[in-house]
Design a protein that fits this description.
Helix content: under 10%
Number of strands: 40
Structural class: mainly beta
Strand content: 35-45%
Distance between the termini: 42 Å
Radius of gyration: 23 Å
Strand order of the largest sheet: 33-40-39-36-37
Number of helices: 0
Length: 479
């Protein structure tokens, strides 16, 4: 659908009602990794500095105990990935797709994703009305229970404090030790995750129809009124301090740091996800089944892509402006910077989790099938002091029904291990275990596990290791 207007009239305001001097920004990102927070950073920009993926290759999948709904993964400095599931568990998954640990909470982790601090502490809110702080080892550090559910992704501040919204109408700030700092009251349910601007101001949407600007000390700087609730859409802040927020009133708003409306755009669909601010300043936002791109100065329409089904996954962008998002049509998409389709990856279940982009450009997201997906070229994982990595060929055939062959070349010549592992990293079959000699060659597997039973259909990986390096390649087994 073509947009109704490039610069529609201002609906119901978004007028500044109060303004104060904003505290200067200090420090840097709380975690020194490619994607430590929902939508990438404290500004919720959704922007990565990593290259985009030319093709969709499945690196691995990790299976949780139930659906991953709107919990979006974050990434640690060592490549570990953290995500919540409605099985009530927070999962820490190693860079190779194996389980590091899981932590059981008292409620579903349905909406808000985790946040990762520099000391390895992971913060996540739960449907049991509790905000959890979990240590790097997967044990409870502290928890804080409030009047309703935490459906937002926590925001970490430069000093280590954590900010999270609650269904009891409040935005809360705690120290890294769990001590309450302040409570900011709105007039409605807070399901929007707070963002931080370059000036240090915090921004959050509420069911009271308002975008709130909050000072570092928890006082109101200004509020702007929209025409309907701000639900799961979170603010995204540009480098110049412009705040972008979608509302259920079908408008996407651009607001200056002083609370004055810059522009508002509508095409008749609800903007209920978080927009991405690309490196060139342009906006990419999802509304209904469409993804649209807008020029940042005037809100002028640039392009539109129709996925054909609802998009509840907030789009994110690679360094070149390529766009990633999932859809309720059970597909994960990559768009060219100009909005044309680059590739799509069939998942088999709706994808409402917003993607995370790793330092090497790999993309991670969860789906309703309970799996965490990693897309990207297979990588060798070096072992300290080790030899050059082996190169595995693509398993063939894939999908496989009767048997699958593995080829490998370029190894170190030392004893090696070739195994098949499942989506959770568990060893399923021994193809070759130990033994000296040149490790280049070919091996076949008859799709039977170590007990002689045929394995169930699904995604598996062949894993090669000689004690100095490790490499894996995925493949699919059919019934």
């Amino acid at each position: 659908m073509r947009p109704m207007s490039m610069r529609p009239p201002v609906p119901a305001g978004l007028l500044a009602v109060a303004l104060a001097l904003l505290a200067p920004a200090v420090g840097a990102q709380p975690a020194s990794s490619a994607w430590p927070l929902f939508h990438g950073d404290a500004a919720r920009s959704g922007r990565s500095t990593a290259p985009s993926l030319a093709t969709a290759q499945l690196r691995w999948t990790f299976t949780t105990g139930d659906s991953i709904v709107a919990s979006s993964p974050v990434i640690g400095p060592d490549g570990a990935v953290y995500v919540g599931s409605i099985d009530r568990r927070l999962y820490a998954v190693n860079a190779n797709g194996t389980l590091r640990w899981s932590f059981l909470t008292g409620g579903e982790l349905r909406f808000g994703g985790p946040a990762l601090a520099t000391d390895g502490t992971v913060y996540i809110g739960s449907m049991d009305s509790t905000l959890y702080a979990v240590t790097a080892a997967g044990t409870l550090r502290w928890k804080a229970t409030r009047g309703s559910t935490f459906r937002t992704s926590p925001l970490l501040l430069p000093n280590g404090d954590v900010v999270a919204g609650n269904g009891d109408n409040n935005l809360y700030r705690f120290t890294a030790a769990g001590v309450p700092v302040w409570t900011y009251a709105t007039l409605g349910n807070v399901r929007s995750s707070a963002a931080r601007g370059p000036s240090g101001a915090l921004y959050v949407g509420s069911h009271d129809f308002m975008l709130h600007a909050v000072s570092d000390t928890g006082s109101s700087l200004w509020t702007g009124v929209t025409g309907d609730i701000i639900d799961l859409a979170s603010p995204a802040v540009a480098n110049d301090g412009t705040v972008y927020i979608g509302s259920e009133d079908t408008f996407l708003y651009a607001v200056r740091p002083d609370g004055v409306l810059r522009w508002a755009y509508t095409d008749g669909r609800r903007f209920d996800t978080t927009p991405c601010v690309r490196a060139d300043g342009s906006l990419v936002a999802a509304a209904g089944s469409h993804v649209v791109a807008l020029e940042p100065t005037t809100g002028a329409f640039l392009w539109d892509f129709n996925a054909g089904n609802s998009i509840r996954s907030s789009p994110v962008c690679a360094a070149d402006g390529a766009v990633y998002f999932g859809s309720d049509d059970s597909t994960f998409y990559c768009l060219e910077p100009n909005g044309t389709l680059r590739w799509s990856f069939p998942v088999g279940a709706p994808v409402r989790s917003s993607p995370a982009i790793g330092a090497d450009g790999a993309v991670y997201f969860g789906a309703y099938d309970g799996k965490l997906y990693a897309l990207g070229a297979p990588q060798a994982v070096a072992v300290a002091g080790g030899a050059p990595a082996m190169r595995l060929g693509a398993p063939a055939p894939s999908p496989a029904r009767a048997a699958v062959a593995f080829t490998f070349a370029g190894g170190s010549g030392r004893a090696f291990d070739l195994a098949v592992v499942d989506a959770a990293g568990r060893r399923v079959a021994d193809v070759h275990r130990g033994g000296a000699g040149n490790s280049a060659g070919r091996a076949a597997w008859d799709l039977r596990d170590r007990t002689g039973r045929r394995v169930p259909p699904g995604v598996y990986r062949v894993r090669w290791s000689d004690g100095a390096s490790v490499e894996t390649r995925p493949f699919v087994v059919l019934p």
